[in-house]
Amino acid sequence: GLHPLNGRINGVAYDPITPTTFYVVGAQGGVWKTTDNGTNWTPLSDGWEVMAASSIAVHPTNPNILYVGTGDYPGSRPYCMGVMKSTDGGATWVNQGRAQLGSRAINKILIDPTNPNIVLVTQGRGASGNGQVFRSTDGGATWSVAISTVASWSDLASESARRARSTRS
Is the omega angle on the peptide bond into residue 19 within 30 degrees of 0, that is, cis? Predict the structure, then answer.
């Protein structure tokens, strides 16, 4: 690719209001943002303790709210620190869930489109082994186990998200 390089892309998320704005997360390159449909890119996570990221989600009605799952799920490096959240389009970040989510990669983030305070994450493949599915009902401030089966969770879908997509079609 062209300089600057991000490495393997693990996830992509689009701004629901401005279609030329989207984000990618990389195995060791953190979060990148484009506002011109991919012509130019800006790194958003250079100051993070861990640059590995596997997933990203954009709030369905407020595109300034972003969630990034740290850790390189498809890779072998278990460097994770929970979920990073931004409320200003990626200019600043707050770490959430590190204590509850531990050192397992966050592979999928799902924001409930009918109640965006509900956020679910899947985890697995970390320094502590496989993970679980966690749920937050307060926009990521606190997390609890939603599915306690220990596995290498890699994806997640919801019926309300499917319904929201089908009504927009």
Answer: no
How do beta strands 105-111 and 119-124 pair?
A: antiparallel
Amino acid (one-letter) located at 101: L
**Other beta carbons within 10 Å of 38:** 11
- The token pair at 135 is 């749920």
Q: Over the stretch 76-129, which tens digit does the pLDDT of each residue have?
A: 565 788 999 999 999 999 999 888 887 888 989 999 999 999 999 998 776 667
Q: Which residues pair with 145 in a beta bridge?
A: 134
Decide if 79 contacts 46 (C-beta within 8 A). Answer: no
Partners of residue 101 on adjacent β-strands: none
Closest CA to 120 of 140, 98, 94: 140
Q: Please give the Cα distance from 161 to 3 (Å, whole number).
A: 36
